[in-house]
Amino acid sequence: MAKLGFDLSAYFSGVNGLFFGLLSASFLLLIAIQPIQKRASSSNPELLHVSFDPTREVINEINALFVKNRQGLLGTQVRVFQSHGGSGSQARSVADGLSADIVSFALFTDMEVIARKNLLNTGYEKTKGVLTPPWNSAIVFVVRKGNPKKIKDWGDLARPDLAIITPNPKISGNGRLVFLSAWGYMLHKGHNETEARDFLKQIYKNVPVMDASARASQVTFFQKKIGDVQLAFESEALMAVKESEGQLKIIYPSISIKIEPPIALVDRNVEAKGTRELAELYLDFYYSYEAQQVIAKNGYRPISPLVAHEFKDKFPDIKLFEVGLLGRSWAELQSDFFGENGIFDQVFQAIRKDRK
Amino acid sequence: MQSKTRSPLPGLSLSLGYSITYLSLLVLIPLSACFIKAGSLSFLEFWNIVWSERTRAAYSLTFTSAFVAAVINVFIGFLVAWVLVRYEFPFKKFVDAMIDLPLALPTAVAGLVYSSLYVESGWLGQYLVPLGINAAYTKFAIIWVLVFTGFPFVVRTVQPVLEELDPEVEEAASILGASRLQIFTKILFPTVFPAVLSGFAQAFARGLGEYGSVIFVSSNIPFETELAPVLIVTRLEEMAYPEATAIATVLLVASFLLLAFINTIEMWSKRLG
């Protein structure tokens, strides 16, 4: 036994042995990678819809309905997978190579992020899902039973006696839309940008916890009972109020931002995977009567006038401003407000100065 | 080419080949990629990123909280190791096995549980918050979970050394007239010190890079409770890769220097001991 050992040692000595070691290590690694490659080339058509945080339930329901209702048309067993997270993070994942067939984001800027990586065909801004998304929403206030702090409108949020829950605008679509909505309120009231900045400083001074996504904020507010008011997507607010059994209440502010979450095919990916036709069918399905009903049921404002009329009691008619009010393109909004040393960073520097 | 001196153990270069390949694939290549990415910035850009007020606040919070947590762990960990080695009690094996749980549990779960326990509506928070003890979403909370995640490292490094230490040595010292304090400072402490240091270093290093748990217990307010790993992830989400890697590079270099420093003390104390 010992002799064999020495023989081996002679054989594998020096550079030879080192080379052999490297070779066999890489070989083992290759074997380890093998099954992953195999799985990628499966024959059953599959779609991956990468979306932002609060759309879990609605997309889940639509996917099931799509597979059920379009089964005859498709002929084969189709599977639709979904992935959710902060809108910005999801855009980053897709830009980094997550092979999504369909994407939907909280804001148009996240669409631009993946467009810059040449994942979308030119003219994607003019496609139906981006121009007239199948769903709309708004930022609303969620307060506790009886509204003990008497919060009625954006102006109240600057009061120093409040704790406000809203996620981090740097990474969350919900966070960015809240920031822009508060800004739009000030401009709408005829204030200038300096005053708007000061107003936002007052608001963010009142934020005790800044979560990473819309859903995390909801957990902080509802489950952990931190804060007096949560600034949320209308759909999230409706869901939270329903689940809270009277513990929470929605307050509609005098004006809010019109949220139009764009949805699009990822052209580069559907071409590579050969799923374009299926993906187009899937996207169109969002505009169908049955999908619009699911959208409305889940708290998003439907685009179909017929369904909107059916659900008119659920969605009060409130004043919504278009992003154009802010006087900037989406790209400018992103860099001016949320870029490095943008308005959001400046607001926090100002808060820091005040606290010192 | 033949190696000059042949090791009596077979397969040295074969296993060396394996080690080098895997070390490169798992550690060296990813880390150098991080440095290369950060290298795409000019020096001035790099400096502005890593030395901005916000980044400095994040670094200082990261290092102080990891340090404080590691110090706390040294005391608790030493005590627990001592109890486990020197005393017999029921369910000792069970308690011993429980020490490793923080390593097995996804730290995000720990973070979530801590923050839910200590908020005002939580089991413990309902008694603590009225007393003014806010153990969720504060710096205190960050240290608290870092103590949790780093705890096993100190216990597991100190325990074997204590087991090796024969109680008869202490008895002999006692018979020869040493006081209890003398036994501790002259016999126990020098023997255990290197192990304590390496446990400290491991817990400290763990605390520096911890993300999963702190994201849930920290309120992530810039300048206040934003940790360096959280800042790195924030930058990544903003698609600012060079900036993120710049912050990571500084964190890596600083941790490496600190760990090297602690290892030097450890070696030095071993030689003295």
Could you characterize the architecture of this molecule?
The complex is a heterodimer of chains A (356) and B (273). Chain A has 356 residues and is of the alpha/beta class. Chain A contains 17 helices and twelve strands. Chain A has a four-stranded mixed beta sheet with strand order 2-1-3-10. In chain A, strands 6-7-5-8 form a four-stranded mixed beta sheet. A two-stranded antiparallel ribbon of chain A has the order 4-11. The radius of gyration of chain A is 25 Å and the shape is globular. The termini of chain A are far apart. In chain B, α6 packs across α8. Chain B has 273 residues and is mainly α. Chain B is globular. The model of chain B has no long low-confidence stretch (mean pLDDT 87). In chain B, 34% of the residues are buried. The chains are: A alpha/beta (356), B mainly alpha (273). Chains A and B meet through α1, α2, α5 and α17 of A and α1 and α12 of B.
Short description:
Chain A has 356 residues and is an alpha/beta fold.
- Run of helices and strands of chain A: HHEHHEHEHHEEEHHHEHEEEHHHEHEHH
Helix content of chain B: over 70%
Average pLDDT number of chain B: 87
Largest interface: A-B, 46 and 42 residues
Instruction: Give the uncertain stretches of chain B in residue-range form.
Output: none
Number of helices of chain A: 17
Q: What is the multimeric organization of the chains shown?
A: heterodimer
Kindly estimate the percentage of residues of chain A that lie in beta strands according to DSSP. 5-15%
> Main beta sheet of chain A: strand number and arrangement?
4 strands, mixed
Weakly predicted, low-confidence segments of chain A: 1-12, 35-42
* H/I helix tally of chain B: 13
Compute the CA-based radius of gyration of chain B: 23 Å
* Beta-strand percentage range of chain B: under 5%
- N-to-C span of chain A: 74 Å
Secondary-structure-based class of chain B equals mainly alpha
Shape of chain A: globular
The pLDDT mean of chain A sits at: 87
The strand count of chain A comes to 12
